[in-house]
Structure of Cytochrome b-c1 complex subunit 8:
Amino acid sequence: MGGAGGKSYMGWWGNMGSPTQRGVVTYLLSPFEQKPFAGALHNAIFNTARRTASQVPYVGVAFGIGYFIYSTANAKHAYLTSKAGHAEAEGH
């Protein structure tokens, strides 16, 4: 039987008959020598602190302005709903 099989048509699994590749360098590290999470917790804590501290001037100013507007509006509302505020509004 001379049918087209795996070895007679294009070569067996990945072997297409092309020239061997040259100049490819592969480096391996034993799984027992790897430490995939070495320093992960330390870096997470200090990078988060550094990045948060770098945003404080922007977020802090916006928060301060917002809090000032909120507290001023609450004080004004409390005054206008008080007896003195009603008395002042009647004069207009």
In short: The chain has a mean pLDDT of 84. Residues 52-92 form one domain. DSSP finds three helices and no strands in the chain.
